[in-house]
Design a protein that fits this description.
- By secondary structure, the protein is α+β, with helices and mostly antiparallel strands.
- Strands 3, 4, 5, 6, 7, 8, 9 and 10 form an eight-stranded antiparallel sheet that branches.
- A hairpin with a 7-residue loop joins β7 and β8.
- The longest helix has 23 residues.
- The chain is rod-shaped, with a radius of gyration of 66 Å.
- 14% of the residues are buried.
Length: 317
């Protein structure tokens, strides 16, 4: 530094006073300007400092120590941000103890599944039904049949006594029997079931009451087979098959069919006949058939007797 100024920069130098035609030597002197930093003397570097400007060499031990210190400082500076700590000696607006904001986008919050609007009225209706049911249970006091209480007692059902046939009953099969009325006798020549016959004074048969049985057979088929056998070689008019109310719990099917026909007597004369067949099927698959047949001129008396004999059969089922 030589303290000189360029001639061309005189006008822009604040340290140089401008001289002009209006310069008055008698005017008061201007105040002294502060010293320029460019005019200050720079002290020389101390010996052995190794300054590149002085050309001195730095001892190897001092150079190695300085390099190790610089490496340690660099490692500490690199480790500090990795650990998440704040940068030391910073003038950040976040403060010395607040880490710099992360550039990563925050994880979006998981949305809860929305309930379909259609299910809302259904769920509300179900809740109302449950509430009404609970209220009815509370009002009614619960199920009174579950616990009858200490003051009540239930009488067990009396088991049904086994059927005992009355005196004069004729056994058929499978526990079934028939009680004949006066004037009715067993036809000994018939081996299928039991057939009762009543005769006219001249010895001609005028009424038949036949009880027969069969296992594992359809009720309708059994009924038609009997009627077809009775009216064979006759002019018959069959009625419709009808259901009967079963008189006992052991029965599962009860049907009947009536018919009329024209038969021939011993002389070959036509005889008007009427009759019916009833079939009662038990739960053990035993079918009991009642085959009733009489002359039309003897029908009132024969039908009255048949009702009583049929009752004895039904009682034994």
């Amino acid at each position: 530094m030589n303290g000189k100024r360029d001639k061309g920069a005189a006008d822009s130098n604040p340290w140089v006073s401008k001289a002009g035609p209006d310069d008055d030597s008698t005017a008061a002197p201007a105040p002294a300007l502060p010293p320029s930093p460019w005019n200050l003397e720079v002290p020389p570097a101390p010996a052995g400092s190794g300054s590149p400007w002085s050309g001195d060499k730095v001892p190897e031990a001092e150079a190695a120590a300085a390099a190790a210190a610089a490496a340690a400082a660099a490692a500490a500076a690199a480790a500090a941000p990795a650990a998440g700590g704040p940068a030391a000696g910073t003038s950040s607006a976040w403060g010395d103890k607040v880490p710099a904001p992360s550039l990563r986008r925050p994880v979006p919050e998981k949305k809860r599944p929305r309930i379909p609007p259609l299910l809302l009225p259904i769920g509300a209706g179900a809740l109302v039904v449950i509430a009404v049911a609970i209220a009815l249970i509370l009002v009614s006091g619960g199920d009174k049949t579950a616990d009858p209480g200490p003051g009540t007692s239930t009488t067990p059902a009396t088991p049904t006594a086994p059927y005992t046939p009355p005196a004069g009953a004729i056994p058929v099969e499978f526990g079934v029997s028939v009680v004949p009325l006066p004037g009715w006798t067993v036809l000994e020549t018939e081996k299928r079931g039991k057939e009762l016959v009543t005769y006219a004074p001249n010895g001609d048969p005028r009424g038949f009451f036949w009880v027969r049985q069969k296992q594992n057979v359809a009720a309708g088929a059994y009924l038609l087979a009997i009627i077809e056998g009775e009216t064979e070689n006759e002019i018959a008019h069959l009625g419709k098959q009808r259901n009967l109310p079963c008189p006992k719990d052991v029965l599962e099917e009860c049907i009947a069919m009536s018919y009329t026909s024209t038969a021939k007597d011993k002389t070959g004369a036509d005889v008007a006949v009427q009759g019916y067949v009833e079939v009662y099927v038990r739960k053990d698959k035993v079918a009991t058939a009642i085959d009733f047949r009489t002359r039309v001129d003897y029908a009132p008396k024969a039908e009255a007797d048949a009702i009583q004999m049929k009752t004895s059969v039904l009682n034994s089922l």
